[in-house]
Amino acid sequence: MKRSGRWAVSLVVIGLLAVSGWRVAVNQQHKKQALQTSATPQELPIQIAAQEVLRVKPRQLALTVPINGAVQAVNSAVVKAYVAGELRGLTVREGDTVKKGQPLARIDATEAEARLRQAQQQADASRAQLSIAQRNHDNNVALVQKGFISTTALVTSQANLDSARANLAAAQAAADAARKAVTDAVITSPINGQIAQRFVQNGERVGIEARIVEVVDTEQLEIVTQLAPADSIQVQVGQSAELQVPGAAQDMAPISAQIARISPSAQTGSRTVAVYLKVLGADNKKDSDLRSPHLRPGLFLQGHIITGNASQLAVPLNAVRTDKPLPYVQVLQSSKPAVASVSPDQAASQEGRTDLRVIHKTVELGRRTSFEGATWVQVLKGLNADEQILAGTAGGLREGTLVEVQSAKSDAAPSTDATAPKAEGL
Question: pTM of the full predicted structure?
Answer without folding.
Answer: 0.58
